[in-house]
Amino acid sequence: MTKSIGNKHEAQHRGKKERLEIRRTNIAREAVKMAEARAKYRNQAKGRPQMELSAQA
Predict the structure, then answer these.
(1) Buried b vs exposed e over 8-45: b needs ≥16 C-beta within 10 Å?
(2) Is the pLDDT of residue 11 over 90?
(3) Rounded CA gap, 34 and 53, in Å?
């Protein structure tokens, strides 16, 4: 939980540049997660568990 400043939430006191930077960071972090997931399942055949595929190789 974030600290409160008076009765307002802390995020309301952030500047426009800071909010934009946080948004960019979150989008970049999400893109990295998606890229890792795509790389992990890149060669996997649809409907087959991953163990079967690695056992054949």
Answers:
(1) eeeeeeeeeeeeeeeeeeeeeeeeeeeeeeeeeeeeee
(2) no
(3) 21
Rounded to whole angstroms, how far apart are CA atoms 49 and 57? 14
Degrees, nearest 5: CA angle 19-32-18: 10
pTM, 2 dp: 0.55
Residue 43 phi, psi dihedral angles, 5° rounding = -100, 10
Per-residue pLDDT band for 52 (boundaries 50, 70, 90) equals low
Q: How far, in Å, CA of 43 to CA of 31, rounded?
A: 20
